[in-house]
């Protein structure tokens, strides 16, 4: 099966995803779109220069929305990270909203009818807008959400217990932003609930959560953007869609109960969101989830 993927936005994240898709062999045809014609053309030529030394061949098309017609997946990475001076992803909202209308019009005109994966910040609000403006089914429009934040949590916990991050389970939920939280009741390591291990190892969950937040801040403050962590999250979602693996992941999806897009575990496959997951959260975690949903909706309308 030939896989065709479009990437809208060729900044730090967009070109990192393109590179990972090309090197991994996940894509056969790649459509790269960016308003900076010189940058996107240069990256396309650079990728083509690498092709003779790579195990996979990829056909690359630049700045042609019509080429998205038969794409299985379109990934949005557009944004302006320099606007996030106060560390709030909603500082990009107005700028990104202005970019969306011509982009979604072009997507619709192309006849694209695949899965739309959004990384653009604030991801929950922008994912919601993409769905409304494209009229694609809600199950076909999703955001990377807290998949990255969940990975950061797994890293912190794994380092504490000296295991691989993939040996830690559990989720960060809600907004991919300041109102998100780690649902510690869902976290397990060494086949034991972390809430119990924390007591026996004299660990404070708030200290661990602070480490998760500091890790993201360290990356941003050190180079003024993030790219590898979120790109790995995006490519993992792409792999689940392309392979129809039906993988459980906390991605930004439409939550009917709360009337907004936000992160909660769902099953991801070839048809996008193919099933819902129900967590047995604590009353406090339920309150935090509702508070996060309210925050997203209020800030989206501000």
- Placed side by side, the strands forming the largest sheet appear as 3-2-1-4-5-6
Spatial shape: globular
* Class derived from helix and strand content: alpha/beta
Share in β-strands: 15-25%
Number of helices: 9
H/E element sequence: EHEHEEHEHEHEEEHHHEEEH
Q: How helix-rich are the residues, as a percent range?
A: 40-55%
End-to-end distance: 44 Å
List how many beta strands DSSP finds: 12
How large is the radius of gyration? Answer: 19 Å
Largest sheet descriptor: 6 strands, parallel
Mean pLDDT: 95
Low-confidence stretches: none
Tag the structure with descriptive keywords.
302 residues; alpha/beta; three-stranded antiparallel beta sheet; 44% helix; 22% strand
Question: How would you concisely characterize the structure shown here?
Answer:
This protein is α/β, with parallel strands linked by helices and 302 residues long.
Structural overview:
The structure is a single chain. With 302 residues, the protein is an alpha/beta fold. The protein contains nine helices and twelve strands. A six-stranded parallel sheet has the order 3-2-1-4-5-6. The chain has a three-stranded antiparallel sheet with strand order 7-8-9, sandwiched between helices. Strands 10-11-12 form a three-stranded antiparallel sheet. Helix 2 (37-50) links the parallel strand 2 (29-33) and strand 3 (59-62). The radius of gyration is 19 Å and the shape is globular. The model has no long low-confidence stretch (mean pLDDT 95).
